[in-house]
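Why does this matter for the project? Reviewers at the last site visit asked to see concrete outputs rather than summary tables. In response, this paragraph embeds two records directly. Each consists of the residue sequence and, immediately after it, the corresponding structure tokens. Nothing has been edited or filtered.
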Amino acid sequence: MRRKTFPLRIECLESRMPLAGNVTAGLNRGGLVINGDNGDNSVTVTPGPAGQYVVAGAAGTTINGQASQTFSGAVRGLAVQLRGGSDSLTLKPGTYLGSVVITDLAGSNSVNVAGANINGALIITAASPAGNSVNITNSTVLSNLGVYTRQSHLNSR
């Protein structure tokens, strides 16, 4: 009995992009405003001299379409709204002028503040019922500290 053979074919599939997004950042009335999208975003903020800040993306996240962006001038505060997706925000060591307000409305998220000197209030709101992690270590807050979470883990040292 004769065996039937079938030719092998290879079919190319469309390319896949990582599930990260583009975060927008800009100055508004003396404050640095960072807005996420509904993708999984990873953002790092590093303060520099004289109110300068570097906002960088990781794991495929872009900042205004670029890997990172530097904002100069008398930045007097920081407002971050990460929106949907599973997001990660890290505030690197240094001095943050004015208050820092972080809001994340959906997803399982991580906020890390390490070695920060915040010359104002630090307010973190993680409204999602999913597991969130807020870690604050070796940091100084000049004014009020408020952490509002639902079903989340808070670690402060």
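We now turn to the second protein, recorded in exactly the same manner.
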Amino acid sequence: MNFSKPFKQVIVLILVACAVIASSIGVTLSSTEAQTSGLSTTNSTPHSATNSAINSTNNSATGSTTNAAVYRFKVGAIDALVVSDGSLTTPPLPNYAPTAEPAEVEQALRERFLPADQLTLYFNALYLDTGRNKILIDTGSGRELGPTLGRLAANLRAAGVPPETIDTVILTHAHPDHIGGILTAYGRLAYPNARYYISKAEWAFWTAANVSLASLKISEGFKQAMVAAAHRHLSAIRERVTLFQPGQEIVPGIQAVDAAGHTPGQTALLISSGQSRLIHAADVFFNEAFDLEHPDWQTGFDLDPAQAAATRRQLLNQVALNPMLVLAYHMPFPALGHIRARGERYEWEPTLWQFEVAD
């Protein structure tokens, strides 16, 4: 049977319209099912629009397929997101275990089924919506540490959190992987409507005219880059910064916990809502193979290694004896878990992945 060309075009248009209608019905049904289930959000569902947007954002930087970059959970009544800034793979020596024997380092990694010549660090920021404040804890690396990092702001936006809506930014310390996202690539504030909070000791150290990093076991070039990054980003928030002391409530529900040693004013954060508690451990420990199995090992970035080790044991003992959820900035995403003491060593028990987060 032969049809005229105009008739064929009409048939094609009808088929396309039917496909669009069918797709719209499917989306509507999916949306209705989600609403009637009583569940507000999901983590890493394959067809999630949020995760598709995040994957698209990350793919544009790497040219590869990525897994989830946002993890949703609750701390009591607080809505929380762990948001990835990316990851960095680097040789473990000399920066991350400079005083350990190379054979011990290799063994520690192999016991965790990790490559002996590589250490992957993860960079995980925490976003909290308390109902009163929209809070970001640390700003990621920005453009300070290479192309595999600096994805925080884009991942926040893809997760439905425009950076402009954040009113509170708490900085645990002033290393470039925690403050490097204060400024955009164009030198503007990435979180333009936020008030910034940092400990008084940390601010005083990094904004001084002369910053000595002589005790760090890293290259001189890296030391200079760290100081330059601190001056650049902290000077940008000078007119909107609030300084706090250990033990102080920074905003309702978040208390500063002294974690000095890694830097002079590093701060862990105790987040409370009802009976639920979460401690943000900042850089008190980096990874299980080194800092938990060998808590007295130092990293090349510890300004006061002895104090850093003492702080590490104190905090780890606290959360092991009084179990609470821990967020560790550099642990594998989503960086949430519990600490178990085993003699002089510690173990990390990752939290069970929640695919659905109830209201």
